[in-house]
Structures are given as C-alpha cells and as structure tokens.
Amino acid sequence: MAALVTYFQLFSVLHIVFFLTVPARSLVMTSLPAVKGAYSSDPTTFPPSVVDTSLFTHIYYAFLMPSNVTYKLEVSSSTALELSNFTTGLRHKNPPPATLFSIGGGGSDSSLFSRMASKPTSRKAFITSAIEVARKFSFDGMDLDWEFPNNAKDMKNLGRLFKDWRQAIVVEAKATSRAPLLLTAAVYFSVDFFLDTVYRKFPVRSINQNMDWVNVMCYDYHGGWNTSFTGAPAALYDSKSNVSTSYGLRSWIKAGVDRTKLVMGLPLYGRTWELKDPNFHEIGSAAVAVGPGDKGVLTFAEVEEFNKKNGAVVIHDMDSVSTYSYAGSTWVGYDDDITATLKIGFAQALGVRGYFFWALGSDSNWKISRQASRAWSLGE
Ligand SMILES: *[C@@H]1O[C@H](CO)[C@@H](O)[C@H](O)[C@H]1NC(C)=O
Ligand SMILES: *[C@@H]1O[C@H](CO)[C@@H](O)[C@H](O)[C@H]1NC(C)=O
Ligand SMILES: *[C@@H]1O[C@H](CO)[C@@H](O)[C@H](O)[C@H]1NC(C)=O
Ligand SMILES: *[C@@H]1O[C@H](CO)[C@@H](O)[C@H](O)[C@H]1NC(C)=O
Hints:
Elements lengths: L6 H14 L14 E6 L17 E7 L12 H15 L6 E7 L5 H8 L2 H17 L4 E5 L6 H25 L5 E6 L16 H7 L2 E4 L28 H10 L7 E6 L1 E7 L11 E4 L6 E3 H11 L2 E5 L4 E6 L2 E5 L2 H14 L3 E5 L8 H13 L1
Parallel strand pairs: 1-2, 1-14, 2-3, 3-4, 4-5, 5-6, 6-7, 7-14
Antiparallel strand pairs: 8-9, 8-10, 8-13, 11-12, 12-13
C-alpha cells in the first residue's frame, strides 16, 4: 500500500514551507526569467529529438574535458559530431532552449583544474579554447563542473578564473557584436566544505561579479559510500545535521551570494540500500550493502519500475521532504513529483533563480520535469 499524501496535506505542507522560510522573498521583483535547467549526460542515447523542450530553459551538454597538457578543450571528431547534433537539434525544437556545455564532471581529474587555474597563462589557454568551442558549435554558454577545489588556494584561483573568464566573454562579445556567452558553474550544496578536514569556501565575491548563476548540487547527501545506514539522498530538511538542501541554499545566501545567482539542484535518480532488518525501514535504518543499480544508483524511471514490479511501499516523508520506498530488504531514497514540487515551493519562497536536474534522460515520461515546471510557473 502506498502512503498517499492527500492534496489537502500537500497544500498545508506547502504553506508551512512558505511561512517558515527566512526572510521571505524580497519585494523587489527581478525581471530575470526563471532557470529550468537540465544536464544531458547521454546525448547519443537521449538525443534532442526526444526532449520535451517546453519544460526546460537551459540544457547542458555533459561533459567536455581539457587536455592536461595544453588545457585546451579536447574535442575528438566523434565528439564534434555530437556537439553539433546537440545544438542543431535543440535549436530546431519549439521552443528552442539555450544550450551550454559543461566542463569536468563528478569523476574528472580535480588536480588538472587546480593546475590550470593556478596560472594566468593556463587560465587564458583554457578560457580562449572554451569560447572558441562555444562559438564553433553555436552554444549559448559554458559551465564549469570542477569537483572540487581542494583547498583555500584552489578557491582563490577559482575566483580568478571566473574573473578572467568574464573579462574574455565581454571582450569577445564586443569584438563580434554578439550576445555575451553565458557563464555558470556547478557547485557544492553548501558554500563551504564544513564536513571535510580541509575547510574551504567558494569565492563569493567573484561569483556575484562574474557568474550568471551557479547550479547548487543539492543531492548526494547519503549514498553507497556509507552502507551502514539508509539516508535521504537529497533531503530538504534534516533535524540532526546540516546536510540538507535548506541548510545548503541558506548557507550560500548567508555568505552573501545574490539569491538570483542560485539555482537549486534536483536529482532525477535514487540511491539504494539493502536493509539489515526489513522490519526497520525508516530513514536512517541500519543497512548492510548497496541495493540494486550501478553502485546503488537507479534513475527515477528505474525506481518507478522497481516500485511497480515489487509492489514497494512508497512513503512521502514530510519531516525531511523526501520520498523513499521499500520492498523486502531493498530500500530506495529519492524524490518524486510530490517532494520535488515541495522543494520548488521552498526555492521560490527563498527567492532563488530556478532549479536544474541531474540528469535529463532519467525522468519517467517527464513526470517530475513537467510537475516542477508547472509548479514553478504557478508560483511566479
Ligand atoms: C596527463 O594525462 C596522461 C594520461 O592520463 C598522464 O599519463 C600524464 O601524466 C598527465 N600529465 C600531467 C602533467 O599530469
Ligand atoms: C547525429 O545526428 C544524426 C542524424 O540526426 C545521427 O544519425 C547521428 O547518429 C548523430 N551522431 C551523433 C554522434 O550523435
Ligand atoms: C555512516 O553514517 C553514519 C550515520 O550518519 C555515521 O555515524 C557513520 O560514521 C558513517 N560511516 C562512514 C564510514 O562514513
Ligand atoms: C549547523 O550549523 C550551524 C552554523 O551554521 C551550527 O551552529 C550548528 O551547530 C550546526 N548543526 C549541526 C547539527 O551540526
């Protein structure tokens, strides 16, 4: 039996979310249009032709990497074909979303970015190449996903990189009389790495001055790297820790980043565990291993399939604002359209610019993407 949240309950929770948010959305209305973004991690198996572009304003090609010798972006002939397919395909959709490419990614070499950002000459080589690739393949912008700057020095250099990058964008736009390219970055859920032994904080001033916005990765709070306990991978609230989306987004605001420069991440995937005892299936229950999926990761479409096939119990946990399901000893933490909608309400009350998904192809018949887009537009 699925635990169903009635619309009355949903409505009440939405109100609570609105009233509890600190300080309510400022009265100064911004004219900036909302960002409804998505990273496309698999443009070949999930090509532009199948994307419902009415649901997204910005679509990111993920990922490109720089050479670790020259720091210029490496674009093989097959990648070149993929890039032009991506931008051409999306440009001909109705409506056409803006396109960006993202550089780096979760598994990429962090030390390469550290070396590149540390010197004016290597920053310049990287930036010049990125702008060249953007124009050559008709992208509207560029995104950096350096996971992660490892120390205070890296963070300082990241601020310099953003500054140089913005300057180069302005110069190029003037010289070519074209609209300036967009510049965004994917960043940690919190403005500082308060959990790590090496404390470091993102360069707030440089972000405000040089970035169009940052995509705050409000997910991966718990996962298969800790098989002892289940956890809500992208909880909005956590009464026992600061590892939550509400804490993370507020930390960025508290540090002085303009709200309009913040875009909230939403996962279109779940994380799985095998419970120690199937009778204990709350969030935080003892577990012994990861569950189904590659390293315990299932796309939202796969979670729905799993739930259906196994008659899983689905719970909408209103303390954390997250969804989980269990069947036998398997436990899955994720967001569905209901909890994603509640987070949208939170983000709008906070006054941030929009939301983005990782990743485009993981939704189930656009269920979450459509509900999120609708909810954001209703709340505007
Ligand atoms: C660059 O990458 C190659 C291949 O991964 C590696 O062998 C080489 O040591 C790297 N160079 C530097 C400067 O890190
Ligand atoms: C590019 O698009 C064409 C036709 O739309 C397709 O046949 C081809 O496989 C695509 N190539 C890549 C690399 O995506
Ligand atoms: C796993 O998570 C639990 C609960 O959050 C924590 O007490 C424990 O230290 C974690 N273990 C590892 C190896 O991170
Ligand atoms: C959360 O962070 C605040 C400061 O931002 C700190 O005062 C509080 O102790 C933290 N809570 C936990 C559970 O770590």
